[in-house]
Amino acid sequence: MTQKQLAKRQLEIRNKWIMTGIVVLIGTGIYLMVRMSIAAYEERMEDRRVTVDYTYAEAKKRQQKAAPAVSDGVSWSPADGRDIDRFMQPDKFYFHSEQRYQFLNLKMSQKIDAQTLDELLDGQGILDGLGKAFAQASRKEDVNEVYLISHAMLETGKGRSELARGVTLNNEGKRDTDGTRYYNFFGIGAYDNNPVMSGARHAQQQGWDTPEKAVRGGAEFIHREYLARDNQYTLYSMRFNPADPGRHQYATDVMWAHHNARQMADYYKQLGREGRFFTRHYYKR
């Protein structure tokens, strides 16, 4: 090798080392920026207190006008003032071992693997084996997967309701055994006067013709319509919307957040984990 060739070779090696160093520095910089961003977000979201513009009495009055309902386990009836107080008055729930999960920030995936989620879903009707679908939907939409499963369990009667098992409809939205089967796991569009048919027709409109599509579509809807809002990313705020009481609420059932929180607490216990990032809404004094 001539001296000129040797010098050229040395220059090429040096340039490669320089480029490698630049790539490493850029990669390290990006990694540190991401970590700092995550750390800042976690610090900001760890334990938030939000005071709304309504007193509790004002919020309760608006709730009473929104036709709240309560169930005795068999039938539904209008919720009275005592029912609302029992489940809407938040002070006693803030640090309760189970009910504190009403205030968990739900717009963060916990990155739990599909196999672990399948353990929670084992034997739960149509939901059995859908751990991968819940894991993927959680990460894609950035929704807490423990909440997604809890919500689906409650809405579907542990995967056994008619709407969960699927309703076959023809192109006109009428029952037809030769039609396509549609699934709805979150009660979306399932109105109280006829929840099965209205929920099935909504699923048809969305194209939820497989259980996996119903999981993904439900997670997308919940994130877009609730969790992406500034003040509706906890169970409590989804149900009672303290920033605008009586409007844009996920359910009419005054016990909805209470039931979900209890279920989530049980799942977190089974997983050997603790929920993180709480936002507690306080009414104006």
Automatic annotation (TrEMBL):
Residues 119-279 form the Mannosyl-glycoprotein endo-beta-N-acetylglucosamidase-like domain. InterPro entries: MGlyc_endo_b_GlcNAc-like_dom. It holds the Pfam family Glucosaminidase. It comes from the Bacteria. Keywords: Membrane, Transmembrane, Transmembrane helix. In the N-terminal section; belongs to the N-acetylmuramoyl-L-alanine amidase 2 family. This is Autolysin. It comes from Macrococcus lamae.
